[in-house]
Amino acid sequence: MQSGQIMVGAHQGIYVIKLVGDVRLNLCTSFDSFIDNMFARGDFAGVAFDLGGAEGVDSTTLGLMAKIAIRALERGCDKPLVFSAGKGIRHLLDAMGFDSLVEISDTVQDMSVPTTPLVCNSPDECAAREKVLEAHRVLMSMNEQNAETFRDLVHTLERECSPVAKSSAHYH
């Protein structure tokens, strides 16, 4: 599988997020910073996800996609559009309950919006863990099935990121 990349672009307040290759949590802190900056902009009007080039998407990335959808809906925007998801990714989106947050279209759409690669800095371990934790909490909030699926992972990460674990780590 091709290692993952996130391409981003915007046209008249509509942001296009294109996932390419195998998109994994190593991109999560940079992606999360982009999300915060996107929503901070005054021109934000909506978002579309192009998954046509995605070979794989991990649960952390899915959690960040859900975060975007929830924040867009809270702003009164239309449901984000997800298009060109292959069968495997489409099945994953359906299984996770994304249909309540996004419009999923199997048709290929040419957004003709120029995109540039998101510059991804290597996250430090705890920052990455915090983003993974946040993304999985979002997925858990979507439905009971996701809550059950990710409960153990979230509890483990919460223990690893607790202040007690952090402070004791400094003394070893």
Strands, helices and their partners?
Blueprint: E1 5-11, E2 14-23, H1 28-40, E3 46-57, H2 59-74, E4 81-83, H3 87-96, E5 103-105, E6 116-117, H4 125-142, H5 144-160, H6 163-169
The number of helical runs is 6
Question: How do the strands of the widest beta sheet line up side by side?
Answer: 5-4-3-2-1-6
For this entry, what is the oligomeric state of its chains? single chain
Taking all residues together, what is the mean pLDDT? 85
Global shape:
globular
Query: How much of the residues is beta strand, in percent?
Result: 15-25%
The unreliable regions are: 165-172
The ordered string of helix (H) and strand (E) elements is EEHEHEHEEHHH
Q: What is the number of E strands?
A: 6
Secondary structure class reads alpha/beta
- Main sheet attributes: strand count, strand direction, barrel closure: 6 strands, mixed
Percent range for helical residues? 40-55%
Q: How far do the termini sit from each other? A: 38 Å
Based on CA atoms alone, the radius of gyration comes out at: 16 Å
